Every structure is written in structure tokens, then in C-alpha cells.
Amino acid sequence: MTVPPEAPPPIQAAGCVLWRRSTTTDGLEICLVHRPKYDDWSHPKGKLKRGETELAAALREVREETGQECVPGATLPTSRYVVHDRPKTVAYWAAEATSGTFTPNDEVDRVLWLPPAAARDRLTQPRDRSLVDALLAALHTNLT
Length: 144
What we know:
Layout lengths: L10 E11 L6 E8 L4 E3 L2 E3 L6 H13 L1 E16 L2 E15 L9 E5 L1 H7 L3 H13 L6
Parallel strand pairs: 1-6
Antiparallel strand pairs: 1-2, 1-4, 2-3, 2-7, 5-6
Helix pairs in contact: 2-3
């Protein structure tokens, strides 16, 4: 009798839908990161380090990818998808940017602060777009 191989454990990752109050309107802006390796636009996120909690990883990834310090808020929906035949789980939080300056690096070469509707349109993956709506719902706003 052959025992089927065990499925690999899911890749555990975490991130934030990073936002700030707009400096030019009454609305808000969402920070998107451009990853040159994939030539895509996404929310800041990354894999958990050994022993790291999801929230700690999310805040670390925001700092590393955007240069921003932030205050975490509501838990947002978790994304689940497959990468190279392996399941991946990404826990997300809403997070308000409080301070910081972006410095391009190997992982992220650009950031954009966009109104929600423009951020939704710019995101590469459809699964990331629903997080914009989840953020707006969590903030109880209809700002687009």
C-alpha cells in the first residue's frame, strides 16, 4: 500500500492595506507597492519569519516595503491562493500610516498613494481589489 505524500504546509504571510488621510482632499489614500520581480502592484505583504506572529510580520513588511510606521486597525479578510503548486495564506489588517519615508530597494522599487477607486484599478491581482472594499467597510466610509 502506497501512502500518498503529505501536502506541503501553506506558506504563511501577512500584510496591510496601508492608508492615510489625503493631503489634498477630504478622502483617504491607499499605498500600493510595485515589485519589480513580478512587475505587479499589490499591498505590502510578506512571509512570516520563524516564531513571528501574523500581525508582527504585517507591520514589519509595511516598514520594510514602504518605509512607513503605522497603527494597525481592523482585521481584513484573509487571502488564500496557490503559488507554485503550494497553498498560500495571507492575513491582512487595515493600517493607518503615521510617519516614514520610502526608499527604493530590491523588493519594492516604487510606491503610490492613490484614492481608493484608483488603487482598486491599479492593483494587479483581482483578489487584492476586494481588500480595498474591505478597508472602506472597516473604516465605515464610502470614500472612493
